[in-house]
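Researcher: I'd like a structural prediction for the single chain below. Treat it as a standalone chain; there are no partners to consider.
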Amino acid sequence: MGQRSRVKIGVAVLLACNQFACGAVISGTTQRVRVSSDPDAAQIEAVSRRGSRSATAPGYVDVSRRRPGLGVIRASKEGYHSACRVIESKRDPALMTLDIIPAALPLLLDLMIKTWPPGDYPKSVDLALEPLPQGWVDVLPSATAILDAFDIAQVNFCDPSAELKGWMRIRSQYANRATRIIATSGDLSRPYDVVGRVDVSAEGTNYWVFNYWRFGSLGTFDLRHYEYKEDPAAMNEMLKFRAFEKFGDTFDAILNVHYESMPHNSVSAGGVAVRFTGSEASAHQGNEERLKEIRNLLDKGLITNEQYEQKRADILKGL
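Model: Treating it as a single chain, here is the predicted structure.
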């Protein structure tokens, strides 16, 4: 390409930026991101505030540059823990400068079609999936829930803190067992021994966020109210997993559960973990052994999935 041709292209781009939005003209309204996984053939889901895309790794997903900022790419495959990455659009200073001059007309247009500030997401994302142990459950939330947690509560499920990582591991290990644990605000008539006290707390959200004003919505300001509070059912689940963390698989119920509301929609809950005694405890342990036995039969291919589900339902009815 000659010097004159390059000059003509440069002039054309500048003219386009003067008439249209620089972010949209030069970068476009979407960006293609290459996603790979280890192992291959994981199902990929890319989610941003403008929608979602799916693919099979290795492959490509298109991420919208409209309302740029945060996005999540999540990979899942049977037999493995899911993995994810929070991606963020990094602003391009050169495009922002072109938007501002002359007369900031391109800036107004980029604001109207929501491609401001112009920038790029990572060109590629690599995700490694860890094997899922037998009996464990994949507990990574959906890509949309991950994005909400990061954007609203600043919780990063893709790069969790040591505390959150431990919490997710406990949930994964005991998710199936938790469905058979009783959590009640009262007492039980059946005999039991006290295992120990268990307490949890959950932070809530209650705040306002002032966002960019948008010419594309008649010039109004974007003021959002984020409010969330855990309900008793969610607190019961948290109590169960806290008890697993403290006592392992040595309890059968949590009694005398109580809740307390705290400032900013936070909630605390507490109760007493107990283990059944006597003949009922023996029957309970027998049911657990039967569940393990039919699971082994399924893993060895000696029964079908339908037979396993039917037997499992019959055993759980007797709990």
